[in-house]
């Protein structure tokens, strides 16, 4: 789908998810928004991390409907994509940032849903995509989110100092708070993985 079909007049951010269930059936859902000013990995990945965290807390498996409803829900100052997207962001020249998300049922041992992420970024007007970043599992995705937000915080603080702009300082503070939260989710996922490994080691010893 081209941006003209979405009635947008700017480069696109696209979040597209493929969700599989216990039978192996896969359903897909996509959402899009203008890339500027918040359509970047740093600002949009927290919604994915929050979704994974919510599934873990509620002991639910992912579904396209749950993912779309969560992503479309505007719960904070950063807008999320709301326009339904039926194309493939990987082949859309207007899509300058694409989150390609693969979700599966919760892992029995850790309680966290299966998750794989590819972030595909290209410079505006450039072809093909210039950078692909891949992460596997909630821990790695949350760690990457924290890294991106920390870098965004530094970038915004540099701009704030240059322009003496208090609004940029507030935005930078928001980025840092989101980074700290993502790191807490990373730590929780890491703790679950460590616990599982410890249980497996204990089981081997007691055999």
Summarize the structure.
The chain has five helices and six strands, in the order αββααββββαα. It has 207 residues and is α+β, with helices and mostly antiparallel strands.
Could you walk me through the main structural features you see in this protein, from its secondary elements to its overall organization?
The chain is of the alpha+beta class and 207 residues long. The chain contains five helices and six strands. The longest helix is centred in the last third of the chain and has 40 residues, at 166-205. The model is unreliable at 1-8 (pLDDT under 50).
Shape: globular
Q: DSSP strand (E) fraction?
A: 15-25%
Number of strands: 6
Residue-averaged pLDDT: 89
Keywords:
single chain; 207 residues; alpha+beta; 5 helices; 47% helix; disordered N terminus
Q: Layout of SSEs?
A:
Elements: H1 3-6, E1 12-20, E2 26-34, H2 41-58, H3 64-72, E3 83-84, E4 95-106, E5 113-121, E6 131-136, H4 138-163, H5 166-205
Parallel strand pairs: 1-4
Antiparallel strand pairs: 1-2, 2-3, 4-5, 5-6
Helix pairs in contact: 2-4, 2-5, 4-5
């Amino acid at each position: 789908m081209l941006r003209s079909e979405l009635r947008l007049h700017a480069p696109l951010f696209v979040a597209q998810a493929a969700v599989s269930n216990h039978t192996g059936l896969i359903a897909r859902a996509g959402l899009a928004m203008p890339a500027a000013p918040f359509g970047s990995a740093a600002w949009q990945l927290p919604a994915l991390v929050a979704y994974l965290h919510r599934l873990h807390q509620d002991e639910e498996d992912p579904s396209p409907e749950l993912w779309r409803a969560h992503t479309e829900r505007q719960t904070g100052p950063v807008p999320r994509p709301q326009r339904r997207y039926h194309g493939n962001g990987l082949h859309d020249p207007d899509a300058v940032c694409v989150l390609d998300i693969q979700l599966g049922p919760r892992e029995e041992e850790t309680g966290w849903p299966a998750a794989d992420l590819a972030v595909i970024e290209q410079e505006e007007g450039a072809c093909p995509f210039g950078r692909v970043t891949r992460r596997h599992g909630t821990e790695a995705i949350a760690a990457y989110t924290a890294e991106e937000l920390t870098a965004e915080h530094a970038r915004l603080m540099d701009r704030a100092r240059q322009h003496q702009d208090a609004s940029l300082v507030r935005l930078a503070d928001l980025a840092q708070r989101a980074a700290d939260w993502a790191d807490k989710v990373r730590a929780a996922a890491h703790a679950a993985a460590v616990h599982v490994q410890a249980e497996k080691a204990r089981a081997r010893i007691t055999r």
